Amino acid sequence: NSAHTSKNKRTNSSDSSTAESEENEISTGHKRKAHTTCSSRKSKRVKRNAFDNEHWSDFVYASSEDDSDADISDYMSESQKKVFEFLNTAPVTELLLIQTCTEKKAAAIIDGRPYEGWRDLINKLNNGKGINTHILNHTLDSLKTRSIVSKLMNKCLDLAISTENAIAAGSSILEEQPSILTQSLKLMPYQLVGLNWLAVMHSQQLNGILADEMGLGKTIQVVAFFGYLKQNGLTSRPHLVVAPTTTLDNWAIEFTRWCPDLRLAIYHGSPEERRELRVRWFKDKFSTMDVIITTYKMVANSPEERKMFKIMPLEYVIFDEAHMLKNMNTQRYFYLFNINAQHRILLTGTPLQNNLLELMSLLNFVMPGMFAANIQYIKAFFSKNSKLPVNKLPDFEKEQIERAKRIMKPFFLRRLKADVLNNLPTKTNSVIRCPLHDEQKSKYDKLMEELTALSDMKDGEYNYMASFMQLRKLANHPLALRYHYKNRDLREIAQRLANDYNYKQTNKDYIYEDLQFMSDHEIHHLAVEYKCISRFKLNDSAFLKSGKFGKLDELLPKLKEEGHRVVMFSQFIFILDIIEVYMRIRGHNFLRLDGTTKSLDRQELIDNYNEDNNIFVFLLSTRAGGVGINLTSADTVIIHDVDFNPYNDKQAEDRCHRLGQTRPVNIIRLISEGTVEEAIYAKAKSKLELEQEIIGNDDDDTDVELLLKEALGIKTDQKL
């Protein structure tokens, strides 16, 4: 039955609730069940509302067992016309945005074209392979959502234009830094501009994103802004700073250094300590502090903490490293969105990305009033976003990305070091390709052969991620996999550990199972820790059989002799474990910080490195040590293994190349020659080339599959 109009009004509450229930089924894309009751037939009639130019129909097709060709008319309502036109003309990339539309269904829709009319469309869908008429209502839902998103973006664009004019009109509120700041410290000219921008945003009651390049002092600008608000009596409520754990102490240091008049509280510590703080703050009605500093984990750690931040009256909430808020569909985003603050400022060192989900997620934070009423439609739209490279995005997504970028412009301030720091020392980038050690290369070539043969044998799903990770591990160091320890060794190790009362497990079979999944280095670590298996420890020579370590043997002695200090990053803790052994073998003085380092110890490690010139190398994990910390005492950054996302590596290198650096900085990237690392670096480099615009989708899973196919010599359109 084709949808038709009806003048019936809802006169019965049960009819109304039934209709509402069915509308929910349609909007969520759930399959309808056949109903034979009188009330269900009534609800179907109720749903056939008149269409006007302001509203969409609830559905365009409702099939029943009694349908025949004669019942289906070629007359089309306005909603049906839109669905018909879309299915008749949309390219495959647009069709794939429809809920439940797979590549097979999209191909079936295209194969059925051209559709001569509504009846022809229904017949072809009913008789098509792998397709049916359910796609009609899903298409309607998709088009409805698009319409709502498009109208919303137009409204936001109008507001953005008027906001831009208002910001321009009040752009010079402050000509000098607030007197409340430490007088011996002076803001840089561009930092004073940033303070002005924040002050104007406050005067216009607007939220914003401060996205200065890493190393330009976003923290200091926020401290100065809070000082400005206090000095001028512009707030009576506390502010909240939410930051990564690694930057917590740095925030406290900068507040104390730049504006000691601000009363500071740090929300961190044990559950008991945090509970004591909550009780005290509630008792004092949050009146004893100007600024609270905490971490992302603390905000959402427990129901009590989530409740406190939801009801605590705050003036500003600052989200440091705000690229963590790029997905509105996550639980963390929901908790952070619910923080009870009048205003929000987001800080990030990376540019906006050409990713509509991320742009809309940030816009929702910056302009919550515009998005709140339509958030369910926006989430529905992103339940099936395209995840395609920028140049292959559907036209609708491209249009909305351009709108989102334009809307974001007045709420977004980004300056680059090259533009504002004329006296910042130069930064030199170099890539060193490291030939694999002979044994390493032999193992790598053999693994490639095995994975290629395995991919040829697999008819169904192929675990490309696991295979790719094996290649990455071996490209870095053979000890990251298991080659040295044979199964007979594992049997003896398991027996000895089972008899050791200090070991956690007493069942030798369970221990043996665990050992089978361990790498050579992990088993070596056990042999170091437990005396009963000490004879299984690896010789030092096993740790030196890496192409990258061979290159480090050339680099590090020369750097040390010339008085340079080194910060070395790796994405992987297990690689840092191996590098740590290498450093001890070669006698280099070093410190280490990674995600497992206790938060209380992190700032102490950073201070020790910055103050003690005898510490030659600082080992850091890219994610934990690459964010928000200052290591300007070093002038050489070695990226041991490159990241898919080039901005993670840029975050890392800018720990040294930032405000306060007095020496030229050298960035060295190590790439294992002839391995998957070459492809990873090429992918990251291509993303960076788009920096002046906005970088592309960071879908690492898609990248991994494509790169593995290339490495194994499989066509990129062939299924693994």
TrEMBL record:
First-listed, main subcellular location of the protein, grouped into a coarse class: nucleus
Helicase ATP-binding domain residues: 199-369
Keyword Isomerase: no
Compartment(s) where it occurs, according to its Swiss-Prot or TrEMBL record: Nucleus
Enzyme Commission no: 3.6.4.12
Keyword Transferase (UniProt): no
Cross-referenced PANTHER family: SNF2/RAD54 HELICASE FAMILY (PTHR10799)
Protein name per the record: SWI/SNF-related matrix-associated actin-dependent regulator of chromatin subfamily A containing DEAD/H box 1 homolog
Organism: Panstrongylus megistus
